[in-house]
Write a structure and sequence with these properties.
single chain, alpha+beta, Rossmann fold, Chemotaxis protein chec, 2 domains, seven-stranded antiparallel β-sheet, globular
């Protein structure tokens, strides 16, 4: 799986390029500077160079750890052709479906909890990349995708307990000290239910969702079999709180 660091891109351009790279199966990383970017061990670093006196248009400077370099116009198709000359996945992930869940997570938390969260990182599910949390809500879905036909999948929202309490207290308009254990379980379950419902609507109502299940336990993980593919999305909430959305997909071609 290729990891690409983007440095110096304007905010709107950064978002556009991240979306396009993800659709090509590339993990985009936001690097504050070159040194921070290299710590993430990317295959390529893309540096945005704005127009200057001797350069009347913005360009992208790319380089990797094998000392390969290139300069390209600010054209994402040209850049992608240079850094991903071969298909990355034999089986394509349905990025429309994945992005529907990502957008739904942002919108539900803004509307129901009153906070804005930011997508920080996107990883392919594998045995090495573990995610940890104290409370998770999992919901299954079945239906038809736009790519390969029938699908069985699940989505897991995994939170640290302190963030879960803040979210649920805000959603119920209560003080955190007033929350009961059942309030947290029911609230986290309702969050994944609303996220999945919104994602279903965004995608085109081609799948059905099940009832949510809530899992608790300090620093637990939510996993699956190796036949299940998907992604893990890392989000950042205010006060540097981090949580995860894990989207698992098992597709069967018609």
């Amino acid at each position: 799986m290729k990891k690409i660091s983007l440095i110096g891109f304007p905010t709107d351009l950064q978002s556009e390029w991240e979306t396009q790279l993800e659709k090509k199966g590339v993990i985009p990383l936001a690097g504050e500077n070159l040194f921070k970017a290299l710590e993430q061990n990317p295959e390529w670093v893309l540096l945005y160079v704005p127009p200057q006196a001797e350069l009347n248009q913005a360009v992208v400077l790319g380089f990797n750890q094998d000392s390969k370099q290139f300069v390209s116009p600010l054209d994402i198709n040209q850049v992608i052709a240079r850094i991903t000359p071969q298909p990355i996945f034999e089986e394509k992930l349905d990025w429309d479906l994945i992005n529907a869940f990502i957008d739904a997570t942002k919108e539900v938390l803004t509307m129901m909890v009153g906070i804005e969260v930011e997508k920080k990182e996107l990883l392919l599910k594998n045995k090495k990349d573990k995610i940890w949390g104290d409370v998770s809500s999992v919901i299954g879905f079945t239906g038809v995708t736009k790519l390969n036909g029938d699908i069985n999948g699940s989505v897991a929202l995994t939170l640290p307990m302190d963030l879960a309490k803040k979210l649920i207290a805000a959603m119920l308009v209560m003080d955190e000290s007033e929350l009961q254990e059942d309030d947290i379980y029911d609230g986290v379950g309702e969050l994944i239910n609303m996220i999945s419902g919104d994602a279903k609507s965004k995608y085109g109502n081609t799948f059905k969702i099940s009832l949510p299940t809530v899992i608790t336990g300090y620093q637990h993980t939510v996993g699956g079999t190796r036949e299940i593919k998907g992604v893990v999305v890392k989000f950042q909430a205010p006060e540097d709180s981090v949580f995860y959305l894990q989207i698992s997909l098992e597709e069967t071609k018609k």
